[in-house]
User: Fold this.
Amino acid sequence: MNYIQAIIIAIIEGITEFLPVSSTGHMILAQSLMDVKDPEFAKTFEIVIQLGAIMAVLLLYIKRFFVGINIYLKLFVAFLPTGIIGLLAYKFIKHYLFNPYTVSISLIVGGVILILLDKWSKDKISEYKEVEDLSYSSAIKIGLIQCVSMIPGVSRAAATIFGGVFAGFDRKQAAEFSFLLAIPTMFAASGYDLLKEKDNIHSDDLTILLIGALVAFLVAIIAVKGFIAFLNKYGFKHFGYYRIILGVLFLVYAVYTGLELTA
Assistant:
Protein backbone atom coordinates (compact mmCIF):
# COMPACT_ATOMS: atom_id res chain seq x y z
CA MET A 1 0.00 0.00 0.00
CA ASN A 2 1.48 3.35 -1.01
CA TYR A 3 0.77 6.76 0.56
CA ILE A 4 -1.75 7.82 -2.07
CA GLN A 5 -3.74 4.60 -1.62
CA ALA A 6 -3.54 5.01 2.16
CA ILE A 7 -4.86 8.59 2.08
CA ILE A 8 -7.69 7.67 -0.30
CA ILE A 9 -8.77 4.75 1.88
CA ALA A 10 -8.53 6.90 5.04
CA ILE A 11 -10.72 9.58 3.43
CA ILE A 12 -13.26 6.90 2.45
CA GLU A 13 -13.24 5.59 6.02
CA GLY A 14 -13.68 9.04 7.53
CA ILE A 15 -16.60 9.88 5.23
CA THR A 16 -18.43 6.55 5.38
CA GLU A 17 -17.85 5.18 8.90
CA PHE A 18 -20.82 6.98 10.45
CA LEU A 19 -23.02 7.22 7.36
CA PRO A 20 -25.52 4.44 6.55
CA VAL A 21 -23.53 3.29 3.52
CA SER A 22 -21.01 0.76 4.96
CA SER A 23 -17.42 1.90 5.48
CA THR A 24 -16.14 -1.69 5.42
CA GLY A 25 -17.91 -2.29 2.13
CA HIS A 26 -16.44 0.87 0.61
CA MET A 27 -12.93 -0.05 1.73
CA ILE A 28 -13.24 -3.55 0.28
CA LEU A 29 -14.47 -2.10 -3.01
CA ALA A 30 -11.77 0.61 -3.05
CA GLN A 31 -8.98 -1.88 -2.40
CA SER A 32 -10.29 -4.13 -5.17
CA LEU A 33 -10.41 -1.22 -7.63
CA MET A 34 -6.93 0.05 -6.69
CA ASP A 35 -5.53 -3.49 -6.59
CA VAL A 36 -3.98 -2.91 -3.15
CA LYS A 37 -1.17 -5.34 -2.44
CA ASP A 38 -0.27 -6.89 0.93
CA PRO A 39 -3.75 -7.78 2.22
CA GLU A 40 -2.40 -8.48 5.71
CA PHE A 41 -1.14 -4.91 6.14
CA ALA A 42 -4.33 -3.58 4.54
CA LYS A 43 -6.34 -5.26 7.32
CA THR A 44 -4.13 -3.67 9.97
CA PHE A 45 -4.42 -0.28 8.26
CA GLU A 46 -8.23 -0.51 8.25
CA ILE A 47 -8.23 -1.20 11.99
CA VAL A 48 -6.01 1.78 12.79
CA ILE A 49 -7.95 4.28 10.67
CA GLN A 50 -11.21 3.05 12.21
CA LEU A 51 -9.76 3.94 15.61
CA GLY A 52 -8.99 7.39 14.22
CA ALA A 53 -12.62 7.78 13.15
CA ILE A 54 -13.85 6.66 16.59
CA MET A 55 -11.80 9.37 18.25
CA ALA A 56 -13.63 11.95 16.14
CA VAL A 57 -17.00 10.92 17.55
CA LEU A 58 -15.59 10.72 21.07
CA LEU A 59 -14.39 14.32 20.71
CA LEU A 60 -17.68 15.59 19.25
CA TYR A 61 -19.91 13.88 21.82
CA ILE A 62 -17.66 13.95 24.89
CA LYS A 63 -20.20 16.04 26.85
CA ARG A 64 -22.73 13.20 26.62
CA PHE A 65 -20.51 11.09 28.83
CA PHE A 66 -20.51 13.59 31.68
CA VAL A 67 -24.27 13.80 32.22
CA GLY A 68 -24.44 10.65 34.34
CA ILE A 69 -23.93 6.89 34.35
CA ASN A 70 -27.24 6.21 32.55
CA ILE A 71 -25.81 6.59 29.05
CA TYR A 72 -22.97 4.17 29.86
CA LEU A 73 -25.43 1.51 30.99
CA LYS A 74 -27.66 1.88 27.93
CA LEU A 75 -24.69 1.68 25.56
CA PHE A 76 -23.32 -1.37 27.38
CA VAL A 77 -26.66 -3.17 27.08
CA ALA A 78 -26.90 -2.27 23.39
CA PHE A 79 -23.32 -3.40 22.78
CA LEU A 80 -23.68 -6.83 24.46
CA PRO A 81 -25.42 -8.73 21.60
CA THR A 82 -22.86 -7.60 19.04
CA GLY A 83 -19.97 -8.29 21.40
CA ILE A 84 -21.08 -11.86 22.11
CA ILE A 85 -22.20 -12.83 18.60
CA GLY A 86 -19.25 -11.05 17.00
CA LEU A 87 -16.79 -13.01 19.13
CA LEU A 88 -18.45 -16.31 18.24
CA ALA A 89 -18.87 -15.60 14.53
CA TYR A 90 -15.62 -13.65 13.91
CA LYS A 91 -13.73 -16.33 11.95
CA PHE A 92 -16.72 -17.33 9.81
CA ILE A 93 -17.52 -13.73 8.87
CA LYS A 94 -13.93 -12.81 8.04
CA HIS A 95 -13.35 -15.95 5.99
CA TYR A 96 -16.60 -16.30 4.04
CA LEU A 97 -18.27 -12.89 3.87
CA PHE A 98 -15.52 -10.32 3.27
CA ASN A 99 -15.72 -10.20 -0.51
CA PRO A 100 -17.03 -7.79 -3.20
CA TYR A 101 -20.09 -9.92 -4.00
CA THR A 102 -21.40 -9.94 -0.43
CA VAL A 103 -20.75 -6.20 -0.20
CA SER A 104 -22.58 -5.44 -3.45
CA ILE A 105 -25.69 -7.43 -2.54
CA SER A 106 -25.73 -5.99 1.00
CA LEU A 107 -25.49 -2.46 -0.38
CA ILE A 108 -28.47 -3.02 -2.68
CA VAL A 109 -30.70 -4.66 -0.06
CA GLY A 110 -29.74 -2.07 2.55
CA GLY A 111 -30.49 0.71 0.08
CA VAL A 112 -34.04 -0.52 -0.43
CA ILE A 113 -34.51 -0.72 3.35
CA LEU A 114 -33.25 2.85 3.82
CA ILE A 115 -35.72 4.17 1.25
CA LEU A 116 -38.54 2.43 3.09
CA LEU A 117 -37.21 3.71 6.44
CA ASP A 118 -37.23 7.26 5.07
CA LYS A 119 -40.96 7.03 4.33
CA TRP A 120 -41.70 5.38 7.66
CA SER A 121 -39.74 7.87 9.81
CA LYS A 122 -40.53 11.11 7.95
CA ASP A 123 -42.97 12.51 10.50
CA LYS A 124 -42.00 10.32 13.43
CA ILE A 125 -41.97 11.98 16.86
CA SER A 126 -39.57 10.52 19.40
CA GLU A 127 -40.87 8.64 22.41
CA TYR A 128 -37.88 9.92 24.42
CA LYS A 129 -36.91 13.42 25.49
CA GLU A 130 -33.18 12.59 25.48
CA VAL A 131 -31.12 9.79 23.95
CA GLU A 132 -30.17 8.46 27.39
CA ASP A 133 -33.86 8.05 28.28
CA LEU A 134 -34.00 4.97 26.03
CA SER A 135 -35.40 1.90 27.83
CA TYR A 136 -33.18 -1.12 28.44
CA SER A 137 -35.45 -3.35 26.37
CA SER A 138 -35.14 -0.94 23.44
CA ALA A 139 -31.36 -0.82 23.89
CA ILE A 140 -31.31 -4.62 23.53
CA LYS A 141 -33.41 -4.38 20.35
CA ILE A 142 -30.94 -1.93 18.82
CA GLY A 143 -28.06 -4.18 19.83
CA LEU A 144 -29.64 -7.22 18.22
CA ILE A 145 -30.31 -5.33 14.98
CA GLN A 146 -26.74 -4.04 15.02
CA CYS A 147 -25.55 -7.67 14.81
CA VAL A 148 -26.72 -7.78 11.19
CA SER A 149 -24.08 -5.17 10.37
CA MET A 150 -21.34 -7.76 10.89
CA ILE A 151 -22.13 -8.73 7.29
CA PRO A 152 -19.89 -6.43 5.22
CA GLY A 153 -21.87 -3.96 3.16
CA VAL A 154 -24.82 -3.81 5.57
CA SER A 155 -23.41 -0.81 7.51
CA ARG A 156 -23.27 -0.59 11.28
CA ALA A 157 -24.64 2.95 11.11
CA ALA A 158 -27.58 1.91 8.91
CA ALA A 159 -28.45 -1.03 11.16
CA THR A 160 -28.31 0.96 14.40
CA ILE A 161 -30.19 3.93 12.94
CA PHE A 162 -32.91 1.56 11.74
CA GLY A 163 -32.90 -0.06 15.18
CA GLY A 164 -33.10 3.34 16.86
CA VAL A 165 -36.13 4.44 14.84
CA PHE A 166 -37.73 1.03 15.45
CA ALA A 167 -37.08 1.46 19.20
CA GLY A 168 -38.79 4.86 19.37
CA PHE A 169 -36.23 7.51 18.44
CA ASP A 170 -36.79 10.16 15.82
CA ARG A 171 -34.25 10.42 12.98
CA LYS A 172 -31.83 12.78 14.74
CA GLN A 173 -31.79 10.83 18.01
CA ALA A 174 -31.38 7.53 16.14
CA ALA A 175 -28.33 8.94 14.36
CA GLU A 176 -26.84 10.30 17.59
CA PHE A 177 -27.32 7.01 19.43
CA SER A 178 -25.69 5.28 16.47
CA PHE A 179 -22.66 7.56 16.84
CA LEU A 180 -22.43 6.88 20.56
CA LEU A 181 -22.87 3.14 20.20
CA ALA A 182 -20.05 3.14 17.64
CA ILE A 183 -17.56 3.98 20.40
CA PRO A 184 -17.74 0.75 22.47
CA THR A 185 -18.59 -1.39 19.44
CA MET A 186 -15.72 -0.20 17.29
CA PHE A 187 -13.22 0.00 20.14
CA ALA A 188 -13.99 -3.64 20.97
CA ALA A 189 -13.94 -4.85 17.36
CA SER A 190 -10.87 -2.84 16.37
CA GLY A 191 -9.05 -3.71 19.59
CA TYR A 192 -9.69 -7.42 19.05
CA ASP A 193 -8.56 -7.18 15.42
CA LEU A 194 -5.47 -5.21 16.41
CA LEU A 195 -4.42 -7.88 18.90
CA LYS A 196 -4.74 -10.51 16.20
CA GLU A 197 -2.81 -8.44 13.65
CA LYS A 198 -0.12 -7.01 15.98
CA ASP A 199 2.60 -9.16 14.43
CA ASN A 200 1.96 -7.44 11.08
CA ILE A 201 2.83 -4.01 12.48
CA HIS A 202 6.44 -2.98 11.90
CA SER A 203 8.27 0.24 12.72
CA ASP A 204 8.51 1.06 9.01
CA ASP A 205 4.71 1.10 8.82
CA LEU A 206 4.11 3.56 11.66
CA THR A 207 4.22 6.68 9.51
CA ILE A 208 1.62 5.48 7.03
CA LEU A 209 -0.59 4.19 9.88
CA LEU A 210 -0.43 7.52 11.74
CA ILE A 211 -1.16 9.52 8.58
CA GLY A 212 -4.14 7.28 7.84
CA ALA A 213 -5.52 7.60 11.37
CA LEU A 214 -5.14 11.41 11.32
CA VAL A 215 -6.83 11.75 7.92
CA ALA A 216 -9.73 9.49 9.00
CA PHE A 217 -10.09 11.49 12.26
CA LEU A 218 -10.28 14.89 10.53
CA VAL A 219 -12.59 13.73 7.73
CA ALA A 220 -14.90 11.93 10.21
CA ILE A 221 -15.42 15.15 12.19
CA ILE A 222 -16.66 16.90 9.05
CA ALA A 223 -18.74 13.88 7.96
CA VAL A 224 -20.56 13.50 11.29
CA LYS A 225 -21.50 17.19 11.44
CA GLY A 226 -22.57 17.18 7.81
CA PHE A 227 -24.61 14.00 8.18
CA ILE A 228 -26.87 15.43 10.90
CA ALA A 229 -27.55 18.56 8.83
CA PHE A 230 -28.20 16.49 5.69
CA LEU A 231 -30.43 14.06 7.57
CA ASN A 232 -32.62 16.81 9.00
CA LYS A 233 -33.12 18.30 5.53
CA TYR A 234 -33.27 15.30 3.20
CA GLY A 235 -33.76 12.12 5.26
CA PHE A 236 -32.41 8.66 4.40
CA LYS A 237 -33.66 8.08 0.86
CA HIS A 238 -30.67 9.59 -0.94
CA PHE A 239 -28.33 7.25 0.92
CA GLY A 240 -30.58 4.41 -0.19
CA TYR A 241 -30.39 5.45 -3.84
CA TYR A 242 -26.62 5.80 -3.59
CA ARG A 243 -26.24 2.33 -2.07
CA ILE A 244 -28.35 0.71 -4.78
CA ILE A 245 -26.48 2.42 -7.63
CA LEU A 246 -23.05 1.62 -6.13
CA GLY A 247 -24.03 -1.98 -5.36
CA VAL A 248 -25.34 -2.63 -8.87
CA LEU A 249 -22.32 -1.00 -10.54
CA PHE A 250 -19.81 -2.95 -8.51
CA LEU A 251 -21.69 -6.22 -8.84
CA VAL A 252 -21.59 -5.82 -12.62
CA TYR A 253 -17.90 -4.91 -12.42
CA ALA A 254 -17.09 -7.88 -10.18
CA VAL A 255 -18.89 -10.33 -12.47
CA TYR A 256 -17.43 -8.80 -15.65
CA THR A 257 -13.84 -8.81 -14.39
CA GLY A 258 -14.14 -12.14 -12.58
CA LEU A 259 -13.10 -10.86 -9.16
CA GLU A 260 -12.37 -13.69 -6.77
CA LEU A 261 -14.72 -14.47 -3.92
CA THR A 262 -12.24 -13.10 -1.37
CA ALA A 263 -11.72 -9.80 0.33
